[in-house]
Design a protein that fits this description.
With about 200 residues, this protein is an alpha/beta fold. Helices cover about 35% and strands about 20% of the residues.
């Protein structure tokens, strides 16, 4: 009897910087594993979508481009969560991975929890540091960590900072080596059905 493919949802809703790029490379890497079906979900404003490294298959969600836009998106949270619920119902993931936390991720984890999907959060910094884009980023990350079934870090230092603090006390933490960016190398995708939501 053939084992069903593991269905993995990877999401990251940043517009620029490392977040979307990590999500794209993570999804590409996971697609190369046998018996794995991967769905990538990015912001429709992600700059990587206009680059030579744009992913071939992606579900795009409308996010925001300013603090005012974020507030507007939060005010329309029920409609946004309905869209997320449809994406989750259509793909039926076994596990969902947040490639880098952002301001709307608690809405996604709420939808995933209701659907019984295991949640993995990749944490890049255990403590806030100067230059964080949003003043409440540390509070958001702490709340996301409490929603996770598994936390992944890319350094032992960050993992130790989480395991010695109060936020990840009930959640396993694993430290992995930071994967290299695929960058401009051609990517070879396994066949995948076209997402229905956009």
């Amino acid at each position: 009897m053939t084992k069903p493919a593991e269905r993995i949802l990877v999401w990251q809703w940043g517009r620029r910087g490392a977040g979307p790029r990590i999500a794209v490379d993570l999804a590409d890497g996971l697609r190369r594993l046998p018996d794995t079906d991967v769905l990538l979900c990015l912001s429709d404003r992600a700059e990587i979508l206009q680059s030579r490294n744009a992913p071939d298959a992606v579900v795009k969600v409308a996010t925001y481009s300013s603090i005012q836009g974020l507030v507007g998106r939060l005010l329309t949270a029920p409609g946004f969560m309905h869209l997320l619920g449809r994406i989750v119902r259509d793909f039926r993931p076994d596990v969902a991975i947040c490639a880098m936390p952002g301001p709307l991720d608690l809405l996604m984890t709420h939808v995933l929890r209701r659907a019984g999907v295991r949640i993995v959060i990749i944490v890049h910094d255990a403590q806030p540091h100067p230059g964080d884009g949003y003043p409440f980023q540390a509070i958001l990350q702490r709340r996301l960590i409490r929603q996770a079934d598994q936390i992944v870090t890319f350094s032992r230092h960050v993992a130790d900072g989480l395991t010695t603090g109060p936020d990840a006390v009930d959640c396993p933490v694993v430290a992995l080596a930071h994967p290299p960016f695929i960058g401009g190398q051609p990517r070879h995708h396994s066949p995948m059905r076209e997402p229905r939501a956009s």
